[in-house]
Amino acid sequence: MTIDLHTIDWRALSAPERKRLLERPAGRDSGLSTSVAAILRRVRDEGDPALAELSLQFDGVAPEFLEVSANELPAAAARVEDSLRRAIHDAAGRIEAFHRADLPRDQRVETAPGLSCEVRYQPLSPVGLYIPGGSAPLVSTVLMLAIPAVLAGCAEIVMCSPPSRDGRRNGSRSGRIPDEVLAAAQLCGVTRAFCVGGAQAIAAMAYGTGTVPRCVKIFGPGNAYVTEAKQQVSQDPRGAAIDLPAGPSEVLVIADAGADPEHTAWDLLSQAEHGPDSQVVLLTDSDALAAAVIAWLQRLAPESPRADILRRSLAGSRIVRVDDLDTALEISNEYAPEHLIINTANASALAERARNAGSVFVGPWTPESLGDYCSGTNHVLPTYGWARSHGALGVGDFMRRMTIQQASREALALVGPTAEKLAAIEGLEAHRMAVRSRLEKVTG
């Protein structure tokens, strides 16, 4: 397998060329949108029978049972190997500790004598978690979604994941969710699990079926069909809210001459292996490092079990030579990557100036893999440049924020004239009179 990689000189690019270099691949496809809309409509109109037929059509296997029985969750946890169970507990402990510290708290403030304003956080329920299937069970995604949902106090946590085609692996049978995913769900507090995947799973959680409950908000990653389905149901008043806009996985690495080129290559490959549309960018002020990283990529990629995916994703990679690390940081802030790795001599100082990134990994000993699995932060992050306006998933995403205010007679007399004046300027007479009628009784 030949991978054609080369270094791009940032100085040699014109402004339009620089803009094109930082562009992501094209977004929504009209054909995909039409197909997904048809799937959503079928599930909304037909319910459970549509789920079984669509699973057979798209996953190649119909689920043995749509809902996983309550007994099956602990049974699956008992079947997985002890080392995996320990790893889940170990990672879950750190994820819980970090997210518990970030738990939103109710507040009450007196903004004027006798005028109190409160904010209360209330858990959403039911919430829907989507766990993709594919070539490997995404145990870590269960942890990242279920733990903050439990901490938020969500009473009903619904999980959907596609049926496995492989009936031989780790005790799972064809047409069932893999044991590893069910084990993580049981250990992390999922209350109900359903064996359904793809756009049809998003439709089931958004609209409800005879078996799958309607959820108020849907969380989790997925392929283009899942992403499109989430976008469509979030725009439908009958649908559900969603966590984050999603696109292909991406990483931007800033590295200097002191960075280990092999480690840097693995950091790039760790995102490139997600899919052929994954985005990987290296910014460096060292010609020697750029050349060494390219050599390592050309050596390591063909040896990977995902060599074909890497060949396609690396074809769109960008290895860019910049004059200095300040320029690299400016480019990163403009690009707004999902993952930002800073592997330089002054990594902590540069990280302080990072503005637009989903999650930042600082120094030579902090691979992005830690954040994906067990450092404690959440790996559900904004992609496609959405890090300019969105942040990492947290406990607050599983809650809604409600404000409360209460005024005494004295407080109304004090602040009411301000409301009157602003209402008058805006031409809203009923607003003004709702205050004036009370003030007349207070002062009269």
How would you characterize this protein structure?
- It is a single chain.
- The relative contact order is 0.14.
- This protein has 3 domains: 7-25 and 248-376, 3-Layer(aba) Sandwich (Rossmann fold), CATH 3.40.50; 30-104 and 130-242, Nitrogenase molybdenum iron protein domain (Rossmann fold, 3-Layer(aba) Sandwich); 408-443, no CATH class.
- β9, α10 and β10 (279-284) form a beta-alpha-beta unit.
- By secondary structure, it is of the alpha/beta class.
- The chain is globular, with a radius of gyration of 25 Å.
- α2 runs antiparallel to α3 (48-59), α2 (30-46) packs across α8 and α5 (82-101) crosses α6 (139-152).
- Strands 1-11-10-9-12-13 form a 6-stranded parallel sheet, with helices on both faces. Strands 6-5-4-7-8 form a 5-stranded parallel sheet, sandwiched between helices.
- It is 45% helix and 16% strand.
- It has 17 helices and 14 strands.
